[in-house]
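Researcher: Structure prediction, please.
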Amino acid sequence: MSLCTLQAQAREHQLARLHYQGGGDWYNDQDIIPNIAEYLNKTISTKFSVIEAIVKPDETKLFDYPFVFMTGHGTVSFNKEEAANIKSYLERGGFIFADDDYGMDSSFRKEMQKIFPDRAMIELPASHNIFNSYFNFPKGLPKIHKHDDKRPQAFGLFNDQGRLMLLYTYESNISDGWSAAHDDPQEIKKQALQFGANIFYYIMNN
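Model: Predicted structure follows.
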């Protein structure tokens, strides 16, 4: 599997949501993937299914999905087998977008450190190409929900060749802007969807 062929394979693939353990609401906002898939199909000419797939961290079918999304408000936990499978998935070409929906930050960071003890997540500067890969975000990650009113941050986990394996967004909650469950202003929703397009356009071309 290679993310370089993600667009060519889009007709065959659903976007997947990670069903993790630990108590967090991994299922939060169930229209997120259908909505972003529809937007991507219209905006950057992908052909993703609007029906999401559900995959658990220890399942072999994880490798069937080049893009996996995870979010939630609570604790994230991976056992030894799940951690090993996720590590292999990411190293073999998979990509995970993790969006903190206010509450998963400390446990998520801890679990990623467990999976990659010698590889740290790096904050992406506003000059990183993901912020101008399709739409232009000169100030970097947009702020979608206030939460603690801290500045929004995007972190990347890279392999030795510089490929972005995992994107983690904190104090932004990009995916809430993909859902109809929140009464966000249209401009905020637009920014969230546009940054979603940037994520996909970037990984399809890098």
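Model: The chain is about 30% helix and 15% strand.
Researcher: Thanks, that helps.
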